[in-house]
Structure formats: structure tokens, C-alpha cells
Amino acid sequence: MKPTLVLVGRPNVGKSTLFNRLTRTRDALVADMPGLTRDRHYGIGRVGSRDYFVVDTGGFEPLAKEGVVAEMARQAEAAIAEGDALLFIVDGRVGLTPHDKQIADTLRRAGRPVFLVVNKGEGVNRDTFSAEFHELGFGTPYVISAAHGEGVRQLVDLVLESFPAAAEEDEGAERGPRVAIVGRPNVGKSTLINALLGEDRVIAFDMPGTTRDAIAIPFERNGRAYTLIDTAGLRRRGKVFEAIEKFSVIKTLQAVEEANVVVMVLDASQDISDQDAHIAGFVLDAGRALVLAINKWDSVDDYRRERVRAEIERKLYFLGFARHHYISALKSVGVGALLKSVDLAYAAAMAKLPTPRLTRALQLAVSKQAPPRHGVFRPKMRYAHQGGQNPPVVVVHGNALDHVPEAYRRYLERAFVDTFKLQGTPLRIEFRSAHNPYADKDKD
């Protein structure tokens, strides 16, 4: 198995910067403010000669007893327990602090190899820069600059030396769908992920906006691999005031773009808002397969349930392709069936549509209802083929297709969806007209 390296330290010492450096991504939020990372964040290490996992954690407060800070500490402790090696990050420019000493005491009791990493060491004498950190008792400190990459490769190779080489993995192995969980703040997204996983994997705290980053969580159920992505709650742009929330919105939108299937969580105890429609609209624009999860269903009466159903039909009418699930994430009621719909939506999004069947479906639809004329010409549709997946794209070839009305495009979409049973995913149609050889000739 690949070893897991866990980055631990107090806030604002550069853990997320190092995470991004090791994974060669920008998956972890980075800004010049403490406490930006809250949940533990997994990635695949790409710096060094070996494969490994790397885990970013929030600023570690070992003595915290309550509130979000205590939840962050609990997440960090869970990551420490999962880790094969701990990279204890300290800030060399600030120097040794009492907070560092508290963390060191906790790590000594963890029973894991600890590597003391002194960050922000660009352009300094390394021996002098790291001298005071010998006091922590973790051996020789390793001076790096996560922002500039200095010493990072050497550190990783040193850490991985003590682990046996992992067997090569099949590059073509099925990794399963990436499933993004989205919705307004405080609708129960993190609680739903914990229910699916059967553990408190992400922070579920009774305060809107607890999740700030998009957290990718690989897991397996019934022999099938998935990657769940817990995202920050989306607000209207006018409601986003803090720089942190602006970053979080970007991460959520990126998570939707990179997902195969999106589970949109609604709160049955609240009205369906314009913001819910905006989120759904973005998912639709991104072309992602979608499953609707109406959460907290156990907490509302029959009148409220009927009202929610009517509001979904009225305000989210454009999501007619998506399956609906009425659930209680807190009590794990109805969440099992959710993954079945995710599987069906993923299969639809990644479906392979043979050209002969597509062309026959096109011809059948045209025979039932021909496209309307544009002037003296009627568009002529000759054949169709698949142009992409996630979402499925159907390319229709013919003559005079530039003026096919939107209503007829929707008619063809429904025809293809019904023929190939593509429930759970939007479908896109592109029209390509054959070149008219006489178009460029002089009209004398």
C-alpha cells in the first residue's frame, strides 16, 4: 500500500502550501490568514520517486475543548491516527512557540514517525535558522521553503526511505465516479457524507459555512469505488463578503466541473430559494449528471412535504431528468438508495451511443415530427454520432441546420434520452451543416 504522509502544525505555518507543492495541484486553499483549512484533505503525492498519499489538516489546537476549533483538532487527530509518517510543520521566521511545544507533546504520544519540518527557509543559513527547534526533541530539523520548492524533494525522498516499495497499480483500473455534494450552507451536506461513509469523516457543525474547502474522500461500497467531494455551501455573490468564502465558492464550482455526478442537497424545512435554482442551473450548465437529495424529510409534516414537492416542480422544473430522494442524513434514512441513483446517473453520463442506433433514433424522431421550415428551406438531418461523454453529446449532421429552433432541439433531446434511457444526466446536441459548394460563387 502507498504510505500516507500527514501534515500537522499550528495555523498559518504553510501546511496547505506544502500540500499543493507535494500534489502539484491547487486543491488546498491558500491565503495569508490563519485557520483556512478545517477538514483533513487527501491528495496523491507527485513530488519524489515514489507514490504516496498526503493529508493536509487544519491548524491543530490540541487543548481546544469546544466549538469549531475543537472539531478541527479532532479531525487532525483522526488524520494522525491514519498516517504512516507525520510531517510536523513549524514556521522558522516566527520561531519556536508554546503552541508548537503543545503539538509536539501530542505527536510524541501518537506512536508514528515524526519529521520536523522548518518552513519558510528560503535564502537563509539553514543551521542557524533551525537551531532553536532542536529543543522539540525530534532530531535534526529539515529546512524547506514550501512556497519556492526548496528542499521539498529531498525531504520526501528521505521520509519515504523507510517504507517498502508499493506494488505497481493498474493504470487502467476503474476508479469509480467522482460525486460532488453541493447545496446552500447548512443543508446537511457533510452529515450526508458521514452517513454514506458510516463515520464522522468531515466536520458537521451546527453553524452555516463550516466547510470552506472542497474535500475529496475516496471510499468503497459493495465492491465499487467512489470519490465523494464535500463542498462549501454556495451563497449568492452579493452575500459573499469574506475572502475565505470567495475562495470556497470557486472551489465548489471547480468541484462541480470535475465531478461525474452531482448530488444537490435541499433542506425540506426551508423553502426552495432562488439560490437553489442558481446552483441547479450551474450544475446543468456544466452538463453534470444530477441526483436531488431532499434532506431533513423526517422533521416536516405532511403539509410541508406537499409544499416542498410542489416547489421543486415549479422552481426546479428544468431538472426533470434527475431522480429525487427524500432522506434524513442525520438518521441515515434513505441514503442507501441514493448511491444506486448515483450509479445509474453515472452510467448514463458515460454511456456509449453507437452511431447506427443514434442515426436510427434520429430518423425515427424526424419521421414523427420534421423540423420546421426556415424560409423556403427545411433543415435536412442525415445522420448522428456521439461527440463526447459526461455529459453525452450527440452531433447531428445535415443541411441547413443553422436555424433549427430551440424547441426542436429539446424534442430531439427527449427522443434520444427515451431511446437510450439516459435518466439522470443532461444531454447536449450539436448541429453541423454540410458546406454548400455554391455559397461562395458569384451570383451573376
From TrEMBL:
GO biological process terms, semicolon-separated: ribosome biogenesis
The keyword GTP-binding appears for this protein: yes
Pfam families recorded: KH_dom-like (PF14714), MMR_HSR1 (PF01926)
Residues binding GTP 1, per UniProt: 9-16, 56-60, 119-122
Domain EngA-type G: from-to ranges: 3-167, 177-350
Record GO terms (molecular function): GTP binding; ribosome binding
UniProt cross-references to InterPro entries, sorted A to Z: AAA+_ATPase, G_ENGA, GTP-bd, GTPase_Der, KH_dom-like, KH_dom-like_a/b, P-loop_NTPase, Small_GTP-bd
PROSITE patterns hit by this protein: G_ENGA
Residues annotated to bind GTP 2: 183-190, 230-234, 295-298
Keywords annotated in UniProt: GTP-binding, Nucleotide-binding, Repeat, Ribosome biogenesis
Gene3D superfamilies given in the database record: 3.30.300.20, P-loop containing nucleotide triphosphate hydrolases
Family listed: Belongs to the TRAFAC class TrmE-Era-EngA-EngB-Septin-like GTPase superfamily. EngA (Der) GTPase family.
General function of this protein: GTPase that plays an essential role in the late steps of ribosome biogenesis.
Subunit text: Associates with the 50S ribosomal subunit.
Protein name: GTPase Der
Organism: Candidatus Dactylopiibacterium carminicum
Biological classification of the source: Bacteria, Pseudomonadati, Pseudomonadota, Betaproteobacteria, Rhodocyclales
Gene designation per UniProt: der
